[in-house]
Write a structure and sequence with these properties.
It is a single chain. By secondary structure, the protein is mainly β. The protein has one domain: Capsule assembly protein Wzi (Porin), CATH 2.40.160.130. The chain contains seven helices and 25 strands. It has an 18-stranded antiparallel barrel. Strands 1-10 form a two-stranded antiparallel sheet. Helix 3 runs antiparallel to helix 4. The longest helix has 18 residues. It is globular, with a radius of gyration of 24 Å.
């Protein structure tokens, strides 16, 4: 009888964990929730691994509920933000959202809201939230005044006990200026632009994200098209930055024990390299171009030997011009060792190895460092004239100490020449020509400092300083001599420099809606290097409205991410 008493609660626990184990990923652009969870983790309210984003909405809801259980330890503004985010994740907490802007509710099944506009349905089998997304940004000052918008619709649904389906469709329209191009050194997300409808300067592009996932009590697997961000950071990750247009992938997440997490994905990249054999260029009629095949496989092991101390290690391979290789569908492999057999006698692959350490053992303090290895040789270590192709990032955040409701942060990034580069069009570390790694790419360094203050309710005030510079713009030339490719000067001549101070205010009046203002004093310069004029590097690395000294005011609002 006693065995049954012990066995029954275990069965209930297993059943419950499977009943509510579902995964819809919250997009990495939702900076508010990710920074809030980082802050709670540093304050020892929750304990989460922050090296891999996005998080699932179920995991976010679970972390918020954990914080709610320690309500007395939170400040007044933390409580306001917690209430705000708890309302956003009501569906994941098996609830219907309520509030002053609710237009209609039928029992516990249907709820319709005006602000934010959304429809929520919930029964024993199916839960779904459907809502529009829209945002507007106006830029004034600098070299030009212009505006940018996005608009569309998104849906997040949970089916049965284990299935999730989510989707987000939005059109981006930028009048007067484009915000991102593959070579521009900016944090703006990339897009595959086309000319504006009706002509004029600027551009527009469409972005479709989403996927279907299956979840069990210690992991999930899904076919998704989304953005991935790996590596702890405050101003751009140097493993996977998430800046490329989203691409389809098989994504696996597993945590079979409390001391380990594992992440893996196999993605279908866009090479934009024309396959001349499969393409047609008739003398009359329309041509048909076909891109060459290009893929990526990547994994990350996160070990937690002590509470709030996380060590992460992983590797990736970009390969192309062959069908999907089954060996790269095995999630936990070290892919470099496969190259010697699968790619014997060819160079159609590009490996990388990376490490990340995150420590929150001192309350309120988060220390982290990331080391990305593109190419490494032990013979270079002792040679002062040679270097490995690596990128390093180190930083800290200090939250709610010595002053409550204040977060301080600092970060340094340094990347050697040739890192993130490759010479083959189908093995480059990029998709749609946007670099997968750090936004400054190679031969660059950055200093970043920030302060964020939460004076009342969900109002956030912030200031940040960025000093970034980029050295000679090198090309990856295999077999180069005098100097060799690993002997090219590091930051010897500066081609581009950014010295900027930004002031920002963000207010979140209701869930899923934010209004913001940002004022930036920037000095972005190009320099005459390698027989190329300064304007060449300004055009290559920066949007026209950012050239030179500028005072730029950005006003806007956003609904959805």
């Amino acid at each position: 009888m006693s065995k049954k008493i012990v066995f029954l609660p275990l069965m209930v626990l297993v059943f419950y964990s499977q009943l509510f184990s579902q995964t819809a990923w919250q997009h990495i652009s939702d900076r508010g929730i990710y920074q809030f969870l980082d802050e709670l983790a540093s304050s020892h309210i929750i304990d989460i691994a922050t090296v891999v984003k996005p998080y699932s909405r179920e995991d976010i809801a679970s972390a918020l509920q954990q914080a709610e259980g320690r309500w007395s330890e939170l400040s007044s503004t933390q409580r306001a933000r917690l209430d705000h985010f708890l309302a956003e994740y009501a569906l994941e907490r098996q609830q219907l959202k309520k509030g002053a802007w609710q237009l209609y509710q039928k029992d516990t099944t249907v709820s319709v809201h005006l602000l934010p506009p959304e429809v929520v349905y919930r029964d024993s089998l199916f839960r779904v939230i459907i809502r529009p997304v829209y945002g507007y940004r106006n830029f004034s000052g600098g070299n030009q005044n212009f505006w940018a918008t996005y608009g569309g619709i998104e849906a997040i649904s949970y089916i049965g006990s284990n299935w999730s389906v989510y989707a987000s469709l939005r059109d981006n329209y930028q009048s007067g200026q484009r915000l991102a191009q593959p070579t521009w050194l900016t944090q703006e997300p990339g897009g595959t632009y086309k000319a504006l409808t009706g002509g004029g300067e600027g551009g527009e592009f469409s972005e479709m994200r989403g996927g279907v996932t299956y979840t069990w009590n210690w992991g999930s697997i899904g076919l998704i098209k989304d953005h991935i961000q790996w590596g702890d950071h405050q101003n751009g990750s140097n493993i996977f930055s998430g800046r490329t247009p989203s691409f389809p992938m098989i994504r696996l997440h597993a945590s079979p024990a409390h001391w380990i997490e594992f992440n893996y994905y196999h993605g279908w990249l866009v090479s934009e390299a024309v396959d001349s054999v499969r393409s047609y260029f008739p003398e009359e009629g329309n041509s048909r171009t076909v891109n060459r095949q290009m893929y990526i496989a990547a994994n990350m092991f996160t070990l937690k030997p002590f509470s709030r101390l996380h060590f992460s290690v992983g590797n990736s391979i970009v390969y192309g011009d062959i069908p999907v290789q089954p060996a790269y569908l095995i999630p936990f492999f070290f892919y470099k060792s496969l190259v010697h057999t699968i790619h014997w006698g060819s160079s159609f692959q590009n490996n990388a190895l990376y490490f990340n350490i995150s420590s929150r053992q001192i309350r309120n303090l988060h220390l982290y460092a990331t080391y990305f290895i593109d190419e490494f040789s032990i013979r270079r270590v002792g040679d002062p004239n040679r270097y490995n192709f690596t990128s390093f990032k180190g930083g800290f955040t200090l939250s709610n100490w010595p002053l409550r409701n204040v977060v301080l942060g600092g970060e340094y990034t340094f990347t050697n020449p040739i890192t993130f580069l490759h010479d083959e069009p189908t093995t480059r570390f990029r998709s749609n020509r946007y670099n997968l790694g750090h936004y400054l790419e190679d031969n660059a360094e950055e200093f970043f400092a920030t302060i964020r203050i939460f004076p009342v309710s969900t109002l956030e005030l912030g200031a940040s300083w960025t000093y970034a510079r980029k050295g000679n713009h090198y090309q990856y030339i295999r077999g180069r001599r005098n100097p060799r490719i690993d002997e090219l000067p590091v930051l010897e001549e500066i081609t581009w420099k950014n010295n900027s101070v930004a002031l920002e205010a963000i207010f979140r009046p209701v869930t899923n809606i934010r209004v913001f203002a940002r004022f930036t004093l920037s000095d972005i310069q190009g320099f005459e290097v390698d027989d190329k004029p300064a304007q060449y590097y300004l055009d290559l690395f920066s949007a026209p409205y950012l050239h030179g000294r500028n005072n730029i005011l950005e006003l806007g609002f956003g609904m959805g991410f």
